[in-house]
Amino acid sequence: MYDSPKMGDIVRSPGVWDAEESAFYKVITRDGFGDNAIIDDVGDKRSGLSTFDVFRKVVGAEKSGLDERVTDLEKRVDRIEESTKPKTVKRRAKVGEKVLVVDETYANSVYNKGDVFTVEKTDSAGVYVEEHGVGLFHSEYEVIVKESEDAEFIEGEFAKVVGGTLCGTINPGVLVEIMNKKDCQGYYKIKLIDGSDYGFAKPEALEKVELSEEDIKLIKLGRKPGVYKGGDIIKVTETFGVVKIDIGDLVEVKKRGPSKDTFYMKGSPSYILAGKLVAPVESRVDIEWRECV
pTM above 0.70? Predict the structure, then answer.
Protein backbone atom coordinates (compact mmCIF):
# COMPACT_ATOMS: atom_id res chain seq x y z
CA MET A 1 0.00 0.00 0.00
CA TYR A 2 1.29 3.45 -0.94
CA ASP A 3 2.32 5.50 2.10
CA SER A 4 1.91 9.18 1.23
CA PRO A 5 4.87 11.34 2.37
CA LYS A 6 4.16 13.44 5.44
CA MET A 7 5.49 16.86 6.36
CA GLY A 8 9.12 16.50 7.46
CA ASP A 9 9.70 13.17 5.66
CA ILE A 10 12.77 12.63 3.49
CA VAL A 11 12.07 11.38 -0.05
CA ARG A 12 14.36 10.05 -2.79
CA SER A 13 13.67 11.18 -6.35
CA PRO A 14 13.20 8.74 -9.24
CA GLY A 15 14.42 11.49 -11.59
CA VAL A 16 11.29 13.43 -12.49
CA TRP A 17 10.72 17.16 -13.03
CA ASP A 18 13.82 19.10 -11.92
CA ALA A 19 14.51 16.75 -9.03
CA GLU A 20 17.77 14.89 -9.69
CA GLU A 21 17.57 11.10 -9.81
CA SER A 22 18.50 9.44 -6.47
CA ALA A 23 18.82 12.86 -4.77
CA PHE A 24 17.12 13.36 -1.42
CA TYR A 25 14.56 16.09 -0.68
CA LYS A 26 12.67 17.08 2.44
CA VAL A 27 8.88 17.52 2.42
CA ILE A 28 8.66 21.08 3.75
CA THR A 29 5.69 22.80 2.08
CA ARG A 30 2.29 22.35 0.43
CA ASP A 31 1.02 23.09 -3.07
CA GLY A 32 -1.98 25.19 -4.00
CA PHE A 33 -4.32 22.27 -3.25
CA GLY A 34 -2.88 21.68 0.22
CA ASP A 35 -0.92 18.55 -0.78
CA ASN A 36 2.50 17.98 0.81
CA ALA A 37 5.33 18.98 -1.51
CA ILE A 38 9.08 19.38 -1.99
CA ILE A 39 11.02 22.24 -3.57
CA ASP A 40 12.93 20.95 -6.61
CA ASP A 41 16.33 22.11 -7.91
CA VAL A 42 14.96 25.18 -9.69
CA GLY A 43 12.77 26.33 -6.82
CA ASP A 44 9.47 24.92 -8.06
CA LYS A 45 7.00 23.35 -5.64
CA ARG A 46 6.27 19.68 -6.50
CA SER A 47 3.61 17.38 -5.03
CA GLY A 48 2.44 14.03 -6.42
CA LEU A 49 5.26 12.11 -4.77
CA SER A 50 3.88 8.59 -5.26
CA THR A 51 6.98 7.47 -7.22
CA PHE A 52 9.40 8.74 -4.57
CA ASP A 53 10.93 6.49 -1.90
CA VAL A 54 9.97 7.67 1.60
CA PHE A 55 12.29 7.72 4.63
CA ARG A 56 10.69 8.36 8.02
CA LYS A 57 11.43 7.82 11.69
CA VAL A 58 9.25 5.09 13.19
CA VAL A 59 8.40 3.94 16.68
CA GLY A 60 11.02 1.50 17.92
CA ALA A 61 13.51 2.55 15.27
CA GLU A 62 16.03 3.50 17.97
CA LYS A 63 16.75 -0.15 18.66
CA SER A 64 17.48 -0.95 15.05
CA GLY A 65 19.59 2.12 14.39
CA LEU A 66 17.18 3.31 11.68
CA ASP A 67 16.31 6.41 13.70
CA GLU A 68 19.95 7.51 13.76
CA ARG A 69 20.33 6.90 10.04
CA VAL A 70 17.21 8.92 9.19
CA THR A 71 18.34 11.71 11.51
CA ASP A 72 21.73 11.78 9.77
CA LEU A 73 19.97 11.82 6.39
CA GLU A 74 17.83 14.77 7.54
CA LYS A 75 20.95 16.71 8.51
CA ARG A 76 22.57 15.98 5.15
CA VAL A 77 19.46 17.10 3.24
CA ASP A 78 19.21 20.26 5.35
CA ARG A 79 22.82 21.10 4.49
CA ILE A 80 22.18 20.46 0.78
CA GLU A 81 19.03 22.60 0.83
CA GLU A 82 20.89 25.43 2.56
CA SER A 83 23.74 25.30 0.03
CA THR A 84 21.29 25.35 -2.91
CA LYS A 85 19.02 28.03 -1.45
CA PRO A 86 18.62 30.78 -4.06
CA LYS A 87 20.52 34.03 -3.58
CA THR A 88 18.08 36.84 -2.82
CA VAL A 89 18.15 40.58 -2.26
CA LYS A 90 15.58 42.76 -0.52
CA ARG A 91 14.37 45.21 -3.16
CA ARG A 92 11.36 45.82 -5.35
CA ALA A 93 11.01 43.26 -8.11
CA LYS A 94 10.77 44.00 -11.81
CA VAL A 95 8.45 42.33 -14.31
CA GLY A 96 9.84 38.93 -15.31
CA GLU A 97 11.97 38.45 -12.18
CA LYS A 98 11.46 35.54 -9.80
CA VAL A 99 10.66 36.24 -6.16
CA LEU A 100 10.89 34.11 -3.02
CA VAL A 101 8.07 34.43 -0.47
CA VAL A 102 9.60 35.24 2.94
CA ASP A 103 6.48 36.42 4.78
CA GLU A 104 2.99 34.89 4.55
CA THR A 105 1.20 37.22 6.98
CA TYR A 106 -1.38 38.23 4.38
CA ALA A 107 -1.42 34.96 2.39
CA ASN A 108 -4.81 33.64 3.56
CA SER A 109 -3.52 30.13 2.68
CA VAL A 110 -3.15 31.10 -1.00
CA TYR A 111 0.65 30.87 -0.90
CA ASN A 112 3.33 29.79 1.56
CA LYS A 113 6.71 30.93 2.81
CA GLY A 114 9.32 29.46 0.45
CA ASP A 115 7.14 29.65 -2.67
CA VAL A 116 8.82 30.97 -5.82
CA PHE A 117 6.82 33.09 -8.26
CA THR A 118 7.42 35.04 -11.48
CA VAL A 119 6.42 38.71 -11.44
CA GLU A 120 3.79 39.65 -14.02
CA LYS A 121 2.91 43.18 -12.88
CA THR A 122 4.08 45.66 -10.25
CA ASP A 123 2.64 48.70 -8.50
CA SER A 124 3.58 50.87 -5.53
CA ALA A 125 2.18 48.40 -2.99
CA GLY A 126 3.34 45.07 -4.37
CA VAL A 127 3.52 42.64 -7.28
CA TYR A 128 1.16 40.28 -9.10
CA VAL A 129 2.58 36.89 -10.12
CA GLU A 130 2.03 34.72 -13.19
CA GLU A 131 1.52 31.36 -11.49
CA HIS A 132 -1.70 32.06 -9.58
CA GLY A 133 -2.58 35.69 -10.28
CA VAL A 134 -2.09 36.43 -6.59
CA GLY A 135 -0.72 39.68 -5.26
CA LEU A 136 2.19 40.01 -2.83
CA PHE A 137 3.03 43.09 -0.79
CA HIS A 138 6.62 44.24 -1.29
CA SER A 139 7.32 43.27 2.33
CA GLU A 140 6.41 39.62 1.62
CA TYR A 141 9.11 38.67 -0.88
CA GLU A 142 12.78 38.91 -1.80
CA VAL A 143 14.10 38.97 -5.38
CA ILE A 144 16.05 35.92 -6.57
CA VAL A 145 19.30 37.03 -8.21
CA LYS A 146 22.42 35.48 -9.69
CA GLU A 147 25.38 35.16 -7.35
CA SER A 148 27.25 37.95 -9.13
CA GLU A 149 24.33 40.38 -9.48
CA ASP A 150 24.88 42.21 -6.22
CA ALA A 151 28.67 41.79 -6.01
CA GLU A 152 29.60 45.13 -7.59
CA PHE A 153 28.31 48.65 -7.05
CA ILE A 154 28.50 51.88 -8.98
CA GLU A 155 28.50 55.46 -7.73
CA GLY A 156 25.02 56.64 -6.75
CA GLU A 157 23.59 53.18 -5.98
CA PHE A 158 22.17 52.39 -2.55
CA ALA A 159 22.94 49.57 -0.16
CA LYS A 160 22.11 48.19 3.26
CA VAL A 161 25.10 47.67 5.54
CA VAL A 162 25.21 44.01 6.65
CA GLY A 163 28.79 43.83 7.94
CA GLY A 164 31.62 45.86 9.40
CA THR A 165 32.74 49.28 8.10
CA LEU A 166 35.85 51.40 8.52
CA CYS A 167 35.84 54.98 9.87
CA GLY A 168 32.70 56.81 10.90
CA THR A 169 29.93 55.24 12.95
CA ILE A 170 27.90 53.45 10.27
CA ASN A 171 26.49 50.25 11.77
CA PRO A 172 24.82 47.15 10.25
CA GLY A 173 21.21 47.73 9.20
CA VAL A 174 21.79 51.30 8.04
CA LEU A 175 21.03 52.39 4.46
CA VAL A 176 23.86 54.14 2.61
CA GLU A 177 24.78 55.60 -0.78
CA ILE A 178 27.84 54.43 -2.75
CA MET A 179 30.18 57.39 -3.30
CA ASN A 180 32.82 55.99 -5.67
CA LYS A 181 34.28 52.93 -7.35
CA LYS A 182 35.97 50.19 -5.32
CA ASP A 183 39.49 51.24 -4.34
CA CYS A 184 42.68 49.21 -4.71
CA GLN A 185 42.09 47.56 -1.32
CA GLY A 186 38.58 46.48 -2.28
CA TYR A 187 36.63 49.10 -0.28
CA TYR A 188 33.77 51.34 -1.36
CA LYS A 189 33.36 54.79 0.15
CA ILE A 190 29.84 55.08 1.53
CA LYS A 191 27.77 57.79 3.17
CA LEU A 192 24.52 58.02 5.07
CA ILE A 193 21.53 59.05 2.97
CA ASP A 194 21.38 62.44 4.73
CA GLY A 195 25.12 62.94 4.22
CA SER A 196 25.83 63.27 7.95
CA ASP A 197 28.53 60.57 8.10
CA TYR A 198 30.69 58.45 5.81
CA GLY A 199 32.84 55.35 5.95
CA PHE A 200 34.31 52.49 3.93
CA ALA A 201 33.01 48.96 3.34
CA LYS A 202 33.83 45.89 1.28
CA PRO A 203 31.21 44.39 -1.10
CA GLU A 204 30.44 41.49 1.24
CA ALA A 205 29.42 44.03 3.92
CA LEU A 206 26.86 45.63 1.60
CA GLU A 207 23.52 44.41 0.24
CA LYS A 208 22.16 46.23 -2.79
CA VAL A 209 18.77 47.93 -2.38
CA GLU A 210 16.66 50.21 -4.55
CA LEU A 211 15.40 53.47 -3.09
CA SER A 212 12.90 55.78 -4.72
CA GLU A 213 12.80 59.55 -4.31
CA GLU A 214 9.96 58.95 -1.85
CA ASP A 215 12.15 56.57 0.18
CA ILE A 216 14.98 59.09 0.33
CA LYS A 217 12.58 61.84 1.40
CA LEU A 218 11.35 59.71 4.30
CA ILE A 219 14.84 58.59 5.34
CA LYS A 220 15.92 62.24 5.60
CA LEU A 221 12.96 62.75 7.95
CA GLY A 222 14.42 60.03 10.17
CA ARG A 223 11.94 57.36 9.09
CA LYS A 224 12.20 53.99 7.41
CA PRO A 225 11.35 53.85 3.67
CA GLY A 226 7.62 53.62 3.02
CA VAL A 227 6.55 54.49 6.58
CA TYR A 228 3.93 57.19 7.01
CA LYS A 229 2.73 58.74 10.27
CA GLY A 230 -0.63 59.86 11.53
CA GLY A 231 -1.17 63.44 10.38
CA ASP A 232 0.89 63.20 7.17
CA ILE A 233 -0.75 64.62 4.06
CA ILE A 234 -0.48 62.18 1.15
CA LYS A 235 -1.24 62.39 -2.56
CA VAL A 236 -3.04 59.14 -3.46
CA THR A 237 -1.38 56.94 -6.12
CA GLU A 238 -3.23 53.63 -5.57
CA THR A 239 -6.83 53.16 -4.35
CA PHE A 240 -7.04 49.31 -4.33
CA GLY A 241 -10.63 49.47 -5.57
CA VAL A 242 -11.87 52.19 -3.20
CA VAL A 243 -14.45 54.07 -5.26
CA LYS A 244 -14.87 57.16 -3.06
CA ILE A 245 -11.23 58.21 -3.47
CA ASP A 246 -9.55 59.24 -6.73
CA ILE A 247 -5.91 59.09 -7.83
CA GLY A 248 -4.39 62.47 -7.03
CA ASP A 249 -6.63 63.26 -4.05
CA LEU A 250 -4.95 64.68 -0.96
CA VAL A 251 -5.82 62.78 2.22
CA GLU A 252 -4.65 62.65 5.82
CA VAL A 253 -3.01 59.55 7.28
CA LYS A 254 -4.50 57.81 10.31
CA LYS A 255 -1.69 55.25 10.70
CA ARG A 256 0.80 53.26 8.64
CA GLY A 257 -0.50 50.47 6.41
CA PRO A 258 0.31 46.75 6.16
CA SER A 259 3.15 47.23 3.65
CA LYS A 260 5.61 49.79 2.36
CA ASP A 261 4.05 53.01 0.99
CA THR A 262 0.56 52.10 2.20
CA PHE A 263 -1.48 53.75 4.93
CA TYR A 264 -4.88 53.89 6.56
CA MET A 265 -6.74 57.06 5.67
CA LYS A 266 -8.15 59.17 8.49
CA GLY A 267 -11.94 59.07 8.47
CA SER A 268 -14.67 56.50 8.50
CA PRO A 269 -14.28 53.97 7.05
CA SER A 270 -10.49 54.00 7.27
CA TYR A 271 -9.47 52.84 3.77
CA ILE A 272 -6.07 51.32 2.92
CA LEU A 273 -4.40 53.43 0.22
CA ALA A 274 -0.94 54.09 -1.26
CA GLY A 275 0.56 57.41 -2.14
CA LYS A 276 3.37 59.94 -1.96
CA LEU A 277 4.18 62.33 0.84
CA VAL A 278 3.14 65.95 0.29
CA ALA A 279 3.50 67.35 3.81
CA PRO A 280 4.94 65.44 6.77
CA VAL A 281 3.09 65.89 10.04
CA GLU A 282 6.23 67.44 11.55
CA SER A 283 5.97 70.38 9.14
CA ARG A 284 2.27 71.11 9.66
CA VAL A 285 1.42 74.27 11.60
CA ASP A 286 -2.34 73.73 11.66
CA ILE A 287 -2.20 70.92 14.24
CA GLU A 288 -0.27 69.80 17.27
CA TRP A 289 1.21 66.44 16.40
CA ARG A 290 2.60 63.56 18.38
CA GLU A 291 4.74 60.63 17.24
CA CYS A 292 2.41 58.08 15.58
CA VAL A 293 3.57 55.34 13.21
Answer: no
